[in-house]
Amino acid sequence: MLPRNLSWPGMRECDVADEASRRAMYAILLTQGNRHDIRRLVNADLLSRDWPLIRDAISPRVARWCERRLGLLPAGEPAGQGGP
Asked: Does the reported pTM lie above 0.85?
């Protein structure tokens, strides 16, 4: 369940099995949440898998922060290359 300050109308709960819903929730958390929210609510494996689509839905500045801080692959970089 998303904290009230992060939830959008009708989107307080998220079924992480629903890919579109999960990506929307992760985009909200990455753009509006704090580190505690992200640590508590984001599954690192699912975020890595969804990252190419989420990255295009958020601001470039936030995307770069996520790539640096969360070890996500930059756009166009093949898996297994670079990263921390």
From this structure: no
Measured in whole angstroms, the distance separating CA 56 from the mean position of its chain's CA atoms is 11
Give, in order, the Cα–Cα distances in Å from 37 to each of 14, 21, 75, 80. 14, 17, 24, 28
Take residue 65 and report the two structure tokens written for it. 């922060």
Place of tokens 């990263």: 83
Distance CA(60)–CA(17), nearest Å, equals 27
Cα separation, 67 vs 72, whole angstroms: 4
Mean pLDDT by 10 residues, the chain (84 residues): 64 78 90 89 94 95 94 72 48
